[in-house]
């Protein structure tokens, strides 16, 4: 920022507000993580205290790792999330490119039809989806989840990406056509890198709800070998007894992979390789 | 041989007709400039020639072959864009080489042509840089280099100088003229700037509302414009048009005289007051309001001491004056 436009008080207030927001946002995560390292009694006696030599305990993590197959759950969640994101980004970007780039009859209509999905929650169709999955034999497979999440994520992806694709210079695409690049190479080599920040945004928006979803895993894939992490953690939450150590440990572990994915995507968000393409 | 022939080319987007019945021939080695106000269809015409848009009707043939159904890459053309349109992820060398690689040219040919183009355009020091590390003028030279290496039958330039600043624009204009002399290639150049059109062209095509208004050499169009639009579009400052003619005119006609053909003369046929003076050193432009309240510009060569508010009298030679009928077509004075 320019020094002439900087006002000490404004800067201070802005940073104060941001720091306060960060504290509020991180507080629940912080409480979960510290309590996951304490024994059961300390969790309830002093929920906000840091673990000390007396209260420190790994019992939660031990339970989590012993009971059930948590590595498998992790793996399932990872496959479902990454697989869904891959298809959302691939098909979303392709549809967006077609809508933004080509003039054809019904272009606007198809765009609106695809955007309709933003307004109608996919869970309304749960029963029909379940019937379809049963008939196609996809119940209790990870494919069931990947397909549903892809369908769920596509409308917003197409909507956001087509806006961004419209901003990619026509001259650049035309230069590619004159140099003899196929439409696929123009899409993958010239256009996709320029809309990478938008792709990262779409990925981040879709990733968290997919990772955290309990509804569809519970209905479409409740079998032991295809359980996702969120569903797997539910074994510790009972109607009468809840193993809080285990729940907190499972939740703490569940944060890690999403965080890793987020770091990957957020680096794309800020990377600006677009400069110099045009103008 | 003809480099390009357009026969009855039409283009419409939905119900909007953008190009109406365009006929044009470009001879081998000719430098043709499409000029016209924005929205006149000149860029669309260039895109139709390039194959980036399909002609709704009519035929486009390049080097004798009808190319209506040929993809852009196989038409034997190369195009330079207004926004440079360099591939951001490739170095200068790879930007130039990509088209040849797509044509499956052997590596030795690619290297040879790229090296030659790089030397011609003075880009040797930058071959390994990315476009983002280059200045505007350098980027435009890379874009021109990318066109040169393809050794096309026809070069297409789409307002290549619009993004450059004034000084650079003049230099690049001269470079393009030199390039045309060196390569003696056929070129089509689109611009809305009449100076570029006048200085570069062998042949100017003036377009308006998707129609060809007139085709001819720059001096042809300057000396013998077919109608009021062409007369007013070419020449700077623009031609003066008067409804209250100082000579005999048919009803509804317009009288035209170029600013440089007017001279200050006591007892002249046009009288008015000076409303503004532009002193350029070499020239002086007087903006005048005639007694009939019509604005006029007078271009005086050299410096002149006339000041704002002065009453002046002007005259001209009849053979430099133009007359246009009620339909804006040229008639004899």
Short description:
The complex is a heterodimer of chains A (279) and B (333). Chain A contains 13 helices and no strands.
Give descriptors for this structure.
A: 279 residues, mainly alpha, MetI-like fold, disordered C terminus, B: 333 residues, alpha+beta, OB fold (Dihydrolipoamide Acetyltransferase, E2P), 2 domains, five-stranded antiparallel β-sheet, 8 helices, 19 strands, globular
Description of the molecule:
The complex is a heterodimer of chains A (279) and B (333). Chain A folds into 2 domains: 55 residues, no CATH class; 202 residues, Orthogonal Bundle (MetI-like fold). By secondary structure, chain A is mainly alpha-helical. Chain A starts with 7 loop residues before the first helix and ends in a 9-residue tail after the last helix. The C terminus of chain A is likely disordered. Chain B has 2 domains: 229 residues, P-loop containing nucleotide triphosphate hydrolases (Rossmann fold, 3-Layer(aba) Sandwich), CATH 3.40.50; 95 residues, Nucleic acid-binding proteins (OB fold (Dihydrolipoamide Acetyltransferase, E2P), Beta Barrel). Helices cover 25% and strands 32% of the residues of chain B. In chain B, β4 and β5 form a beta hairpin. Chain B is globular. The mean pLDDT of chain B is 92.
Number of E-type strands of chain A = 0
Query: Tally the helices of chain B: what do you get?
Result: 8
What is the CATH C level class of the largest domain in chain A, in words?
Mainly Alpha
Largest interface: A-B, 23 and 35 residues
Instruction: Identify the CATH architecture of the largest domain in chain B.
Output: 3-Layer(aba) Sandwich
Provide the domain count of chain B.
Answer: 2
Counted by DSSP, the helix tally of chain A is: 13
Beta-strand fraction estimate of chain A: under 5%
- CATH homology-level superfamily of the largest domain in chain A: MetI-like
Rg result of chain B: 23 Å
The helix/strand class of chain A is mainly alpha
Compressed to H and E, one letter per element, the order of chain B equals EEEHEEEHHHEHEHEEHHEEEEEEEEE
Question: What is the CATH homology-level superfamily of the largest domain in chain B?
Answer: P-loop containing nucleotide triphosphate hydrolases
Structural class of chain B: alpha+beta
CATH topology assignment of the largest domain in chain A: MetI-like fold
Shape of chain A: globular
Q: Kindly state the mean pLDDT of chain B as a whole number?
A: 92
The CATH architecture of the largest domain in chain A is Orthogonal Bundle
Largest sheet of chain A: none
């Amino acid at each position: 920022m320019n020094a002439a436009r900087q006002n000490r008080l404004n800067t201070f207030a802005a940073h104060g507000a941001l720091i306060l927001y960060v504290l509020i946002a991180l507080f629940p995560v912080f409480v979960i993580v510290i309590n996951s390292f304490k024994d059961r009694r300390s969790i309830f006696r002093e929920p906000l205290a840091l673990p000390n030599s007396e209260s420190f305990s790994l019992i939660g993590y031990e339970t989590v790792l012993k009971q059930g197959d948590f590595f498998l759950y992790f793996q399932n969640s990872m496959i479902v999330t990454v697989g869904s994101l891959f298809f959302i980004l691939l098909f979303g970007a392709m549809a967006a490119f077609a809508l933004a780039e080509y003039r054809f009859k019904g272009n606007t209509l198809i765009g609106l039809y695809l955007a309709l999905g933003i307004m109608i929650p996919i869970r309304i169709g749960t029963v029909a989806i379940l019937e379809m999955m049963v008939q196609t034999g996809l119940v209790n497979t990870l494919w069931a989840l990947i397909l549903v999440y892809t369908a769920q994520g596509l409308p917003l992806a197409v909507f956001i990406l087509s806006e961004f694709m419209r901003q990619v210079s026509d001259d650049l695409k035309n230069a590619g056509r004159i140099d003899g690049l196929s439409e696929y190479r123009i899409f993958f080599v010239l256009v996709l890198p320029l809309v990478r920040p938008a792709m990262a945004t779409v990925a981040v928006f879709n990733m968290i709800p997919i990772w955290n979803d309990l509804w569809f895993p519970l209905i479409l894939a409740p079998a032991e070998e295809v359980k996702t992490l969120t569903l797997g953690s539910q074994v510790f939450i009972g109607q009468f007894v809840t193993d809080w150590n285990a729940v907190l440990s499972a939740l703490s572990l569940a944060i890690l992979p999403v965080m890793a994915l987020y770091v990957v995507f957020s680096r794309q968000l800020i990377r600006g390789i677009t400069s110099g393409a045009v103008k | 041989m003809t480099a390009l022939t357009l026969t009855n080319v039409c283009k419409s987007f939905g119900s909007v007709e953008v190009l109406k019945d365009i006929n044009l021939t470009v001879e081998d080695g000719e430098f043709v400039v499409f000029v016209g106000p924005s929205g006149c269809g000149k860029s669309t015409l260039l895109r139709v020639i390039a194959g980036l848009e399909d002609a709704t009707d009519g035929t486009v043939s390049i080097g004798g072959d009808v190319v209506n159904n040929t993809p852009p890459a196989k038409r034997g053309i190369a195009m330079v864009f207004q926004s440079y349109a360099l591939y951001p992820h490739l170095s200068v060398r790879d930007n130039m080489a990509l088209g040849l690689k797509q044509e499956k040219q052997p590596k030795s040919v690619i290297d040879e042509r790229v090296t030659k183009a790089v030397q011609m355009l003075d880009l040797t020091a930058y071959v390994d840089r990315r476009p983002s590390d280059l200045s505007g003028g350098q980027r435009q030279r890379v874009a021109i280099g990318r066109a040169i290496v393809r050794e096309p039958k026809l070069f297409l330039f789409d307002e290549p100088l619009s993004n450059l600043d004034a000084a650079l624009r003049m230099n690049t204009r001269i470079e393009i003229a030199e390039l045309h002399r060196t390569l003696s290639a056929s070129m089509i150049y689109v611009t809305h700037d009449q100076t570029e059109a006048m200085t570069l062209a062998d042949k100017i095509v003036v377009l308006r509302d998707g129609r060809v208004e007139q085709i001819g050499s720059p001096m042809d169009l300057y000396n013998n414009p077919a109608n009021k639009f062409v007369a007013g579009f070419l020449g700077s400052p623009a031609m003066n048009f008067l409804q209250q003619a100082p000579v005999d005119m048919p009803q509804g006609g317009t009288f035209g005289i170029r600013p440089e053909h007017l001279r200050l003369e006591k007892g002249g046929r046009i009288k008015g007051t000076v409303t503004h003076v532009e002193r350029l050193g070499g020239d002086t432009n007087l903006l005048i309001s005639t007694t009939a309240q019509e604005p006029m510009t007078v271009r005086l060569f050299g410096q002149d001491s006339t000041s704002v508010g002065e009453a002046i009298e002007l005259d001209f030679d009849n053979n430099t004056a133009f007359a246009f009928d009620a339909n804006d077509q040229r008639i004899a004075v």
